[in-house]
Every structure is written in C-alpha cells, then in structure tokens.
Amino acid sequence: MYNVAIIGAGPAGIFAALEITKLKPDWKVVLIEKGQKIENRKCPLREGSPKCVNCKRCGLLCGWGGAGAFSDGKLTLTPDVGGHLVDYMSREKSEELIHYADKLYLDFGATDEVFGTDMKTFREIERQAALAELKLVHSPVRHLGTERSLDVLKSMQDYLSERITILNNVSAKSLIVECEQVKGIVLDNGETLQAQYTIIAPGREGADWLTKEFADHKIGMVNNAVDVGVRVELPAPVFEPLTSKLYESKLVYYSPTFGDEVRTFCMNPNGEVVQENYNGIATVNGHSYAEKTTNNTNFALLVSKKFTEPFKEPIQYGQHIASLANMLAGGILVQRFGDLLDGRRSTPKRINSSIIKPTLSCATPGDLSLVIPYRQMTSIIEMLYALDKIAPGTASRYTLLYGIEVKFYSARVKLTNELETEGVKNLFAIGDGAGVTRGLIQASASGVHAARTICSRG
Hints:
By secondary structure, the chain is α+β, with helices and mostly antiparallel strands. The protein has helices at residues 11-23, 91-107, 119-131, 146-161, 207-216, 236-246, 314-329, 337-342, 348-352, 374-390, 440-457, and strands at residues 2-7, 29-33, 74-76, 114-115, 135-137, 141-143, 165-168, 172-178, 181-187, 192-200, 221-223, 226-235, 250-254, 261-268, 272-278, 281-287, 296-305, 333-336, 364-365, 400-407, 411-413, 427-429. The chain folds into two domains: 2-115 and 142-222 and 412-457, 3-Layer(bba) Sandwich (FAD/NAD(P)-binding domain), CATH 3.50.50.60; 226-407, no CATH class. The strands form five sheets. The chain has an eight-stranded mixed β-sheet with strand order 5-13-14-17-12-20-18-19. Strands 1, 2, 7, 8, 9, 10 and 22 form a seven-stranded mixed β-sheet that branches. Helix 1 runs parallel beside helix 11.
C-alpha cells in the first residue's frame, strides 16, 4: 500500500515527487514511467539513422523527464505563457509556485542566466511588434540547453531513486475507482498498486490514454483549443536582433481573414528541427543546445482554434491532420515558402538549390497545402508576412516550413482549484496531458501544487 502513486515521470510528476519527499519523507511513494531511465533514453534518428524507425515507445517522448528531456530546456518564468495555472489560483500564488519550481531547477544544476529581463529592450521590440499588429508577451526565459537539461533531470532521478520507488518500462493500464474514490492503479503487466492518492501526469504523449480512461470513469472533460501548425526554419541572422536580446520571442497575431489566434512557440536560435513519434504518428518539433549550434533558427507557428459542441475529439483531430502528412511523405513534409505561394510542391532539387540547408534531413519535400486546412494555412501565411515586418527575411521564398506540428494537450480535465478531479476523490491530474499546462515550468509548478494539497491532508 502506497501513500501516493504518480503516473508519468515528466516535469509534473517529478516535481510532485520532489515536494512529497520534502514534506512527507516517511511516506511510501511510487512513480510509474513507461519509458526508460534518463541515461538509457535513445533516439536512432538522432544517432545517425537515415529515418525514424518508429520505436514502440518514442525515445524522445517517453522516459524520465518526459517530452521535455530532449527539448532545449526553456523555463518561461511567467504565468502568462505555458499554461492555465491562473485559472485555478491567484496570479500571486501561480507566480510563487513558478519561482519555487525555478529555484528547484537551480538547486539541481540549472544555469543562472535569464533572458528577457531588460525592460527597456523589451519595450522597444514590443513597439516594433505593435506596428506590425503583433503582440509581444513579456516572458523571461531561463535556457538550459538540451545537454544541461539532461544533467539536471539525471540529478533529480538520482535524488528520488534513493527516496521513492521508481518503476520504468511499465505503464498504467487503468485506474481503480470505488465509491467515487480512487484506490490505485492496474499496470499493463497485470500488477495492481494500491494507493491512498493517485496523481496522473502523463504528458502530451499520454493525453489520449487519459481522455479515454476518464471517459470510462465519467470524469468531466472540456475542450481546449486545438493547436495545429508548422515548424519554420530560416537563417539565424534573420531573427538574431530578437533572439540575441530575448532568446525566445512570444508573439501573438490575429489573422485578418479569419481572426484566428496564431502564435510563435518553442523558438530555437541556432537550433535544429527534429522528428517525434506520437503513437506511430510522426510530428515535428525543434531543439537547441547549450554547446552545439547550427546556422539556422526554428520556431513553431501554431493556429489555435476552440471548437464547440458537438465536437468532442480535439486530440483525434490533430492526429488526423498529422497522419495525412505522414501518408503523403512517409513522415515529415518540408516545403519552401515560395513554393507554397506558387501553388507547387517542393522537390529535392528545389530544396537543394535553396540558401537554407534543412537540419531535418529525413523530411520529404512536398506540398503542405494538401494537408493543412485552408483556414489554418491562410492564418499561417498572414502571420509570416506580419513577422517579416519586424524580422525582414522571414517571408523569404527560401524559408522552410515543416509539417505537421500539433500539440496533444487539447483535452482538459475538470478540476478543483487544488487540481483534484471533480467526482473522484483523491485523484489529481496535472501537467500538459491534463490540459492544465503547456510548458516545462508550469507543469513543474502544477506538480508542486498538487503535492502540497495531498500532504496537507495527511
């Protein structure tokens, strides 16, 4: 019998475990992770394979540290970006949690440097953005880089392995709920774990499982906006005037044709584009490193669309669009912006004759207009032209667009202000997979918040 069972060793689950071991060092805690330990996580594509081999459990997404382990480790130190914590608590409380989680990262080896704190510089870039009808969100960023991020996560793993039970390479099959109270978990190997409290933190990769499991137990869900878009890659000097000062520019635009929100996301100066595998569906992402650099910068352009009844399957919607790209390309599609505007597919010859060398070499040249719905594509094109006004060269004919980038945090659990599920007592849902957050620092903070609530009841 455990005091607390935690599903998922991403930042939300890890920080929940860290806080519980601090407040209740004598409690029995089990953390379940379907992937490998941090030191055993591997991606054949990153290690030289010419294409993704569709691992059963994607090494970039599953394992200790979650999908953020191989990201570039950006901690966005504001409640205005990266989640919905302020929907569950006061702004002051969310800021305190973010500051606390940030300090824990520092305690485990994070770098001291924070970008975007010079308000004079921010105001000048904000003014330039406003002239282009773009909103610049103030978002100080602590950048770890992939290498440092892995080191920090390894330190957390080593610390917790001496204090709790960690089960790797095993996943939760179902929850045990009796009389509207969670009693434990059934694992995919048939083992049953009994626990007084259960925290679900499956990350975006486990959002589909969470949605189905909660439907079985009639736990309420609401639709978040569906985020679908592309990964943009261009010469690093194009965005250097912004990235050298802010590192990551969080820019929001409302497309004139449809009024949809388009935002930049996960900006990687001198980084590389990478492929991920969500349950057999190839999607695109981007990383940057503390030491290794490229000549390119990449970032996502995501179009957010909130659907209403009777639509109830936002995750499946995103998966469907991504699967269309996979059908045409056998993986990731890449297209030059100029070819998209000219209504023609990109070819290997056209890509090779460009001034930009793609960092994702396995991407297949093709035509994104055959995949992305007209509404989202129109909004993306309009956003690129708006960005070109503050970063000339963004709308170059050589700019590369990779697809599809889609974020699977679209289902949002109905929760109390303590992040406990409505209708099932002692069951908590946190992080990106629950739709509560969409970034490392708020996911971490959500874990701390749930842990404090549980410990206060003990």
